Amino acid sequence: AISAAKVQIGRSAKFIGQQSVQLHGGIGVTMEYKAGHYFKRLTMIEQMFGDSDYHLRKLAASGAAIAA
User: Fold this and answer.
1) Exposure winner among 2, 4, 9, 33, fewest CB in 10 A?
2) Between the CA of residue 50 and those of 10, 23, 25, 61, what are the distances in Å?
3) Angstrom distances, CA of residue 68 to CA of 9, 18, 50
4) Is residue 53 part of a domain?
5) Predicted confidence (pLDDT) at residue 66 exceeds the cutoff of 70
6) What residues have CB less than 8 Å from 31, skipping those under 6 apart?
7) Containing domain of residue 31, as a range?
8) Is the pTM of this model over 0.85?
9) How far is the C-alpha of 10 from the C-alpha of 24, rounded, in Å?
10) pLDDT of residue 32
11) Residue 52: CB partners within 8 Å, gap ≥ 6?
């Protein structure tokens, strides 16, 4: 269950961060702008305790059902 949550959180964080940078343009990646700070923070959270790919492989190895 924790690996499934980590996969979903990782995918969602990546999508939200990338869309935020696209929406705000170049200023979206500067540290003076909160969107850039949050994007970097989400990227760091994604890498902590194994990224989404690691947890997806872990789920596949355990035979757990994976939601699309």
Assistant:
1) 2
2) 10, 28, 29, 15
3) 13, 20, 20
4) yes
5) no
6) 37, 40
7) 2-61
8) no
9) 21
10) 78
11) 6, 7, 10, 11, 14, 46
Domain presence at residue 13: yes
How many residues make up the chain in this entry? 68
Give the integer Cα–Cα distance in Å for 35 and 52: 22
pLDDT at 50: 87
Q: Kindly report the CA angle at 46 between 44 and 52, in degrees rounded to 5?
A: 155
Q: Which helix (H) or strand (E) covers residue 66, if one does? A: none
Q: For the chain, how many structural domains are there in total?
A: 1
The string of pLDDT tens digits covering residues 6-57 is: 999 899 988 988 888 888 887 767 767 888 888 888 889 888 888 888 998 9
Interatomic CA distance for residues 11 and 35, integer angstroms: 17
Query: Is there a domain that residue 68 lies in?
Result: no
Token output for 12: 């969602």
